[in-house]
Each structure stands twice: as structure tokens, then as C-alpha cells.
Amino acid sequence: MDDERLLADVRSPDGEVRGEAVRSLCPCHAGWEAFERHVAVVLRATRDRDRAVRAHALHVFEDAARMQLRGELDYRLHEVAEMVRRKRASRFRPEEEAAEARRLGKVRRLAERYRRWRNSG
User: Fold this and answer.
1) Closest of 16, 112, 50, 90 to residue 24, by C-alpha
2) How far apart are CA 101 and CA 38, in angstroms?
3) CA–CA separation, 58 vs 99, rounded Å?
4) Which of 24, 12, 26 is nearest to 67 (CA)?
5) CB 53 within 8 A of CB 22
6) How far is 35 from 106, CA to CA, in rounded Å?
7) CA-CA distance, 17 to 12, in Å (whole number)?
8) φ, ψ for residue 12, nearest 5 deg
9) Residues in Cβ contact with 62 at an 8 Å cutoff, skipping those fewer than 6 apart
10) Could you give the 3-state DSSP secondary structure of residue 113?
11) Is 104 exposed, middle or buried (0-12, 13-18, 19+ CB in 10 A)?
12) pLDDT of 85-96, one tens digit each?
């Protein structure tokens, strides 16, 4: 719905038309940008003379709050998952370090074996 039509419908004398216009601003349908652009319209609709229009406006704000909370929760969960991943990764050596440690261990064992052989003879 275009903005001019929406604003005309919000000013309509028919409560059903006003209610549908407000309901069309629900962020789960219209998107977050449309909701933010017309949040003042939805706020005014919470004081509308028609009970159904007020209910639609409250529904729009409820959905917006739910979406905002879900977004924050997703962000926090991602943060925690990243922290756990880093903590687990720090327990183990990277592949290059592990290969180098194995190589150095073999060299030390060979050197120790050589020293024992030289000292035994």
C-alpha cells in the first residue's frame, strides 16, 4: 500500500477501513522500515474512538515488540555461541602447531635414542 492511500485510509470515517490501514503497518507483514516510518500513525491509532482500531494498533505494537525481542535474543545467542567456539578452540592447538609439536617430539626422541646409543658404546 502506498503512503498516500494509507494516510487517507487512516483518516477515513469508517472504523473498519482505519483498522485495516493500521493493521497493514504490522512489521511482520509490511516490514520493519514501513512500521518505523509510520509509527506515529500507529501510536495515534491507540487512541482511536473505535475499539477495533485500537486493538489493531496494539496488535501492531505487540508484534513489533516481539520481533525486536527475537532479534535481540538471536544476537545474544550468536554472541554466546561465538564465545563458546573461541573457548573450545583455545583448548586445542591449531593444525599447524600440532604438526610442529609432533615433528619436534620425533626429533627429540631420535636425539635421545642417539645419545643413549653413543653413551652405551
Assistant:
1) 16
2) 62
3) 61
4) 26
5) yes
6) 66
7) 7
8) -60, 145
9) none
10) helix
11) exposed
12) 777 766 665 677
Q: How do residues 64-84 score in pLDDT, each as one tens digit?
A: 999 888 888 888 888 888 888
Return the C-alpha cell found at 15: 472504523
pLDDT digits (tens, 9 = 90+) for 26-68: 998 888 898 999 999 999 999 999 999 999 999 999 999 998 8
Which residues 6+ apart lie within 8 Å of 67 measured at CB?
27, 28, 32
Instruction: Answer for the pair 42, 57: CB distance below 8 angstroms, yes or no.
Output: yes
Chain mean position to CA 50: 36
User: Residue type for 80, please?
Assistant: V
> What is this structure's pTM?
0.62
